């Protein structure tokens, strides 16, 4: 008989007793906590009591909050050892079965995941005796929640059961594919691919293909669109010569579906489809389909297709790639550049630069460059941003200089956009641009923008501008900082606006490390110390914070002689926050 | 009489009283006024919402218990506060708790789910039963006294014991912040995973499991609000075509949209409008043609619209005019002026189909409600009143006298009580059982087969 792990002494039982009682505590957090320690409880109870008492109790605990049920479903997936090993793993089926019927999808999915996991721990006999009957019960359950859960379990038991059971499972799957409720048909459609993978090829052809075709022409849009995904898995399984007959009719139908959501799904899965059907079908079938999707009447579909332009072109067979792109794809792309919908244009802008590496220098200059230039002048800031953020691809092929004349006005306009989020986005590309355009160009054209952001009226922009300066200094070096940035930053220390004075402090905090000890000690520190007498408390406590930040860059002598007295004085400030941050700085810098 | 016979299914039968719910008090609290009535898909549950933000669910008793005459009465199953009054601090607007609509979800497991909405926020409620309770603690004894922690020598696992049935209603999801104007309709799609919600100017599409975003599918808000000429009054999903929905407008028109065609359904695929009769044109024409409710038939072939004076049945295949028009209270046409003055002309009457789509029902004033048999074209006026509320009492048809000499049993137009209005009614999806909301009372009537 197994010995109870906790039976040695009273004190070791107490924490377990608390855990068990808290399984029913009114506070969800405590219940959740207890459920997460279910293995501790089970270990203390021993395998036998876990099987005969704990699991029956848990089986009926399906009234709880989702998060508790979710944790329970997850725990049970790794409970096999705690019920006595694989021999007893089937004891876990009842609680997971009831969890697989709750209405909350996340809980159900987790229960199915755990069931799939423990299915592998069943012996072939137990699988037939316990697991497969459970799958059947779920598959023929009254409520669709149980039938949807069944769909996820067929594929794990199918490979390990007898021939006759296999045929029953296929029958169940067939039934669920034509279930009355769309939820179950959706579940079946979404599991079609994984079920196909474990099925013998002959049954894939004889059983699944008709089901696949039926789901792909379901009356519900939401079912049909899932068949598109199944298309990918099925196409991967079938030999090339069967694809034309068994998969392509369905795929063609989906590409021309009346519902834009189905066509959207095709566009969204286009790269996967392309890989699954291979080069020949791609050339003959998918290229025209892709052209149609790029010209679709629904903007959502065009945007999804536009997103795939680069990937599709990359995956074209090498020998015909350039011809196909130049003759079939580029004309559509050209039209999309002036699309009426900004999401379409912006989706295209996020990938179009990638075409330059595929097409090479001459084609890029002749055909793509005009498009880039047009997009840099687009009315929608997102389009311009997407072009700018992908400049590196073009830089590699033709060099950025080709673009710089158009780039500059685009950048300036974005930098001054009325929407602060747009300004924020362009700031983030500044270090990248600086690297590609070079110091000289940057100083001449962009530096003033970077300084202007420091006094933006939106804090997030000032903050990003500060961070941007740091990255620029990292790139261009300390001497560049000293000559171009530092004087301007320090100049703001006497600005009448206290927000600008604070920006000086933020910049110093950010730049000191990159600028190094000399600049920090000689130029920045005096300014910071002087600002400790500012009238505004916010500035004073930011002085304390800045000192804390730049302290490590300074020599100890400077710390002791210059920083300490100032912090000591601030530590007696009449403002509570100034005091607090001064004391904190002293502690951190070991000056206290 | 001819009008007395079975409006509602073809068979000859009469309607008789079954139950009345709610207080008898003459003095009605505003919060108790019923604002929506809805049967679930099986008809076993009946939900009402009221102006106080409460939802009351009635469950039909199993037939065949001791009282021989009871044919499955509806008794209270669960009552809960769905919405509370709120205040929008940004717009300085009070948000009433009144339940505008309730829609049941198709049953998915042992629990029941419904959507309830006020002007701004839609909530998904779960109504579930519990009949077991866990017993036995480690740190407490049976009487709840704490045990000495050092005396615990063995662990107890709680055991589930049967207990009295408890029905719980719990809020599962809250769909908020998507409507600038007042929500007038919610409707569950036949894909069982999405639903739409409509306010005065926009229609949104939601996924039932996702609360933090919805898709705007119709937006009729003009760039300049001064150019506003019509508002959306009601919207509904087609019962079996997941891509089709309709919405009605204050101008008396209905637009049918196909969600397959594009993501934004600003362009309708069908436009239902009856040409105006120039001879009956008046100052009130536009007001009374405003559609207050639109409902697809169960078959999905027809839809029914209610305007102030009539109910119209449209064949979805014919946009130019309705296939049937039923006058609800034509005698009010001469009273429009006073109905305008007391605001009654803006009352939003709803309408409903019976289970087999061959009869329709809608409300009127004076606690009268009307039924129309689509096959025989017979119609009947019945009254929801306490006076005839004896068990199994047969409802006498009522007649309103329109000018001339008043016959016995007739009531004159001038003595109608316009404060007693029946706006919300529901018909059991399979049987001849109807629920009629009269102010704070819910009447349930059923057929009595001759």
TrEMBL record, chain A:
<dbReference type="InterPro" id="IPR055231">
    <property type="entry name" value="2AA_helical"/>
</dbReference>
<dbReference type="Pfam" id="PF22646">
    <property type="entry name" value="PPP2R1A-like_HEAT"/>
</dbReference>
<feature type="repeat" description="HEAT">
    <location>
        <begin position="563"/>
        <end position="592"/>
    </location>
</feature>
<feature type="repeat" description="HEAT">
    <location>
        <begin position="524"/>
        <end position="562"/>
    </location>
</feature>
<dbReference type="InterPro" id="IPR051023">
    <property type="entry name" value="PP2A_Regulatory_Subunit_A"/>
</dbReference>
<feature type="repeat" description="HEAT">
    <location>
        <begin position="368"/>
        <end position="406"/>
    </location>
</feature>
<feature type="repeat" description="HEAT">
    <location>
        <begin position="329"/>
        <end position="367"/>
    </location>
</feature>
<dbReference type="Pfam" id="PF02985">
    <property type="entry name" value="HEAT"/>
</dbReference>
<dbReference type="InterPro" id="IPR054573">
    <property type="entry name" value="PP2A/SF3B1-like_HEAT"/>
</dbReference>
<dbReference type="GO" id="GO:0005634">
    <property type="term" value="C:nucleus"/>
</dbReference>
<dbReference type="GO" id="GO:0005829">
    <property type="term" value="C:cytosol"/>
</dbReference>
<feature type="domain" description="Phosphatase 2A Regulatory Subunit A helical">
    <location>
        <begin position="92"/>
        <end position="273"/>
    </location>
</feature>
<feature type="repeat" description="HEAT">
    <location>
        <begin position="208"/>
        <end position="246"/>
    </location>
</feature>
<feature type="repeat" description="HEAT">
    <location>
        <begin position="247"/>
        <end position="285"/>
    </location>
</feature>
<dbReference type="InterPro" id="IPR016024">
    <property type="entry name" value="ARM-type_fold"/>
</dbReference>
<feature type="repeat" description="HEAT">
    <location>
        <begin position="485"/>
        <end position="523"/>
    </location>
</feature>
<dbReference type="InterPro" id="IPR011989">
    <property type="entry name" value="ARM-like"/>
</dbReference>
<comment type="similarity">
    <text>Belongs to the phosphatase 2A regulatory subunit A family.</text>
</comment>
<dbReference type="InterPro" id="IPR021133">
    <property type="entry name" value="HEAT_type_2"/>
</dbReference>
<dbReference type="Pfam" id="PF22956">
    <property type="entry name" value="VPS15-like_hel"/>
</dbReference>
<keyword id="KW-0677">Repeat</keyword>
<dbReference type="Pfam" id="PF13646">
    <property type="entry name" value="HEAT_2"/>
</dbReference>
UniProtKB/TrEMBL annotation, chain B:
<keyword id="KW-0853">WD repeat</keyword>
<dbReference type="InterPro" id="IPR018067">
    <property type="entry name" value="PP2A_PR55_CS"/>
</dbReference>
<dbReference type="InterPro" id="IPR000009">
    <property type="entry name" value="PP2A_PR55"/>
</dbReference>
<dbReference type="InterPro" id="IPR001680">
    <property type="entry name" value="WD40_rpt"/>
</dbReference>
<comment type="similarity">
    <text>Belongs to the phosphatase 2A regulatory subunit B family.</text>
</comment>
<dbReference type="GO" id="GO:0019888">
    <property type="term" value="F:protein phosphatase regulator activity"/>
</dbReference>
<dbReference type="InterPro" id="IPR015943">
    <property type="entry name" value="WD40/YVTN_repeat-like_dom_sf"/>
</dbReference>
<dbReference type="GO" id="GO:0000159">
    <property type="term" value="C:protein phosphatase type 2A complex"/>
</dbReference>
<protein>
    <recommendedName>
        <fullName>Serine/threonine-protein phosphatase 2A 55 kDa regulatory subunit B</fullName>
    </recommendedName>
</protein>
<dbReference type="InterPro" id="IPR036322">
    <property type="entry name" value="WD40_repeat_dom_sf"/>
</dbReference>
<keyword id="KW-0677">Repeat</keyword>
<comment type="subunit">
    <text>PP2A consists of a common heterodimeric core enzyme, composed of a 36 kDa catalytic subunit (subunit C) and a 65 kDa constant regulatory subunit (PR65 or subunit A), that associates with a variety of regulatory subunits.</text>
</comment>
